[in-house]
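Question (not urgent): is this output format expected?
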Amino acid sequence: MGRYASAERRTKETDIRIEIDLDGDGTGKIDTGIGFFDHMMDGFARHGLLNLGITCRGDLSVDCHHSIEDIGIVLGETIARALGDKKGISRYGHCLLPMDETLILCAVDLGGRPYLVFDAEFAGEKCGDMDTQMAREFFYAVSYSAKMNIHIKKIYGSNDHHIMEGIFKAFARSLRSACQPDPRVGGIPSTKGVL
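Got this back:
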């Protein structure tokens, strides 16, 4: 099918390149300089069944904010480019994902309108070398640059690692479902005729 795209972003704070194949096998080649975030993005690729390459050189001597936010921007751009005109896709996807004591709900709409609802709290300030507050910033950036609705809710959970990993995996599964071609969709899945 060949739903592949790439994008780059260079600023005084970050130098990023991302490649994505929405019809891949879950292979991730991730190097952001933020070990925990690499782990999250590798899980995103694996559970989304997409091939994902990310390289980022950011101002980590400051903190992880610019790198993670800008990766979200570029990832959203590559997803939007790879989807093209969105003909024949399912459009909507959702996942209820358990991870040990944690349960995460995620739903997405690839309908062309950006919006994020992020209802999840963390007990600590960090997971590894990633600031926990950057989870919301990342998904906000993805939602706006990809022009998609993303709704994320922690139903319950107490371990920050499980919560964070559950969120990224639930998003991966939801996006995978939304991008999935539906043979019964004879064009653009919208009454407007455009997404």
